[in-house]
Amino acid sequence: MATTDSDRYDRVAISFHWVIALLVIANVIIGLFHESLFDPRQVMPIHKSIGMTVLILSIGRLFWRLGHRAPPLPPELPSWEKMAAKAMHGLLYALILLLPLTGWAMSSDPERPRPISWFGLFDFPILPTGKAIAGFSHEAHEILGLLMAALVVIHIAAALRHHFLLRDRVLTRMLR
Questions:
Q1: How many C-beta atoms lie closer than 10 Å to residue 173's C-beta?
Q2: What's the rounded Cα separation, in Å, for the pair 85 and 47?
Q3: Per the confidence metrics, is the pTM higher than 0.85?
Q4: What is the pLDDT of residue 3?
Q5: What's the per-residue H, E or C state across the chain?
Q6: Which residues of the chain have pLDDT under 50?
């Protein structure tokens, strides 16, 4: 099935999507394996910098999205699949904001603050959190990170299903 320009995301949305996707995948890998595959002292500053980059880009992406509608899903998709896609995208948007925010709050623990340096260029301010919020943020960050890993796998699998099995235009809407 051919994809027209009105069926595709615009170049800005596509750029946001792929840059954020690659950064999220890199951070999920670092987050899951920072103690077993990497030296945490070397990789965690990179993890934090990537996370803050995702936060900033995600805010930009959300503002862009407010003024630019997503192309419609193919009309032949069943309603349950359209609802699942909408829920998946909503969860992914929430996570690309919540994961960096919980990481930032966790790093702002008043008893042991660990400033976030953005690739050594400047530091983000320490958030005014209490011990309870920092502790909650630590647990939430770990749980949300696992949820993000699972949703990324499901999202990729769904895109590949649409492209190779269903042979519809869902994936090509995000390609240029």
A1: 21
A2: 28
A3: yes
A4: 52
A5: CCCCHHHCCCHHHHHHHHHHHHHHHHHHHHHHHCCCCCCHHHHHHHHHHHHHHHHHHHHHHHHHHHHCCCCCCCCCCCHHHHHHHHHHHHHHHHHHHHHHHHHHHHHCCCCCCCCEEECCCEEECCCCCCHHHHHHHHHHHHHHHHHHHHHHHHHHHHHHHHHHHHCCCCHHHHCC
A6: none
